[in-house]
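Go through this one:
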Amino acid sequence: MAWIDYKKYLNYPQLEELFKIGLLDYEKFRDKDIKKISDNILTSYDFIKWPDKIDWHNHPLIKGKEINKIYEHYWSQTINYAKNIPGLITLNVNFIGGNSIIPDHKDNIKALTDIEAWRKLGYITVIGIDVPGKNVDEVGFHVKNVKKFIKTGDIVTFDGSLVHGGWNNTDKKRVTFYITIDKKYYE
């Protein structure tokens, strides 16, 4: 199965609330140049050979119980709420530039799990925070080649050990929460 119903997470209403709180924090810097205030995925994981056409940045907010102090002031309400979500392992904000891709990959490849053991433990949930486009051809994700358009406010879940990727064929940035939740918290 490519996609998992996010409502199988035992505390799914907290994901819906996290979206609302995240929007409040995001408003503070919606129009700022994200590249100046975020981590570049290509340099964070420079041991991976990346294809062209990638403009992928993120704010790693929570990893395990560790709160990233660098971004805490941008996302204070979000972090304060999320740190109490049962089973939450990681919370990242992903920014994908216009006309860019997230290359096909698996989150549990050895090069990543050697430095980030959490990658083996959970399901991935994506929440659309600011998603341009109107259809899957403009902005989308796929898991095992099953494509999905995710608009602002949508919540989807999948197994990160499966091949997945994304695209943004608009001229605007796409912003999502990328969350890992321990599998034992799902039905």
User: Anything to note?
Assistant: The first strand starts at residue 3 and ends at 4. Helices lie at 12-26, 41-44, 76-82, 110-113. The first helix runs from residue 12 to 26. The radius of gyration is 15 Å.
